[in-house]
Specification:
Layout: H1 4-24, H2 30-48, E1 51-53, E2 58-62, E3 67-74, E4 80-86, E5 93-99, E6 104-111, E7 113-118, E8 124-132, E9 141-150
Antiparallel strand pairs: 1-9, 2-9, 3-8, 4-7, 4-9, 5-6, 5-8
């Protein structure tokens, strides 16, 4: 069997895996650690009230006044809790859930940590938006979004999220 034709594709696969591994394993900035740890704190507090993460937390950086939409399908039999937080370079966040037609269904405005409970009226796709109302950094601020559901409830359309997230280990 000739194996020469497998050499270069194999090299490219290894090289690509190395690059992806390096990108995933980068160190977090101080602002990212602040946001991740705040999300962990809120998740732990919600855990005492019987809620767990239903989706992987989102941590990103965006410019002032950025609108960070997250589109997801929600089940009407579940009361979700959405959490939005911005790093210490940000004064307020506005969190809202809307239909894809743009109708705002519920919002929580002007808090450092926005917490928005929401029970959808129907099985549908919704848009969760977080907006930083102010950011003192020209290069932008770091924000985080967490989506929780009651513990033990099977949340359709969500990935399996482990109880212990490696992402939260930076806070210990």
């Amino acid at each position: 069997m000739k194996r020469k034709h497998l050499f270069w594709p194999g090299v490219f696969v290894l090289l690509g895996a190395t690059m992806i591994g390096t990108a995933v394993a980068r160190e977090l900035t101080d602002e990212e650690v602040t946001v991740v740890c705040k999300l962990k704190e809120v998740v732990e507090e919600a855990g005492r009230d019987g809620y767990d993460l239903a989706y992987w937390p989102v941590v990103r950086k965006g410019p002032p006044k950025v609108n960070a939409p997250l589109t997801l399908r929600l089940d009407p039999s579940i009361e979700y809790i959405f959490v939005g937080y911005c790093d210490e370079n940000c004064e307020d966040t506005e969190l809202n859930i809307s239909s894809l037609a743009g109708e705002v269904l519920k919002s929580d405005e002007e808090d450092t940590v926005s917490v928005l409970p929401f029970e959808p009226s129907e099985d549908n796709v919704y848009e969760l938006n977080l907006q930083m109302t102010s950011c003192t950094q020209d290069e932008g601020c770091v924000y985080g979004i967490g989506i929780l559901a009651p513990r033990g409830v099977d949340v359709p359309y969500s990935p399996d999220v482990p109880k212990e997230l490696a992402q939260f280990e930076v806070c210990e």
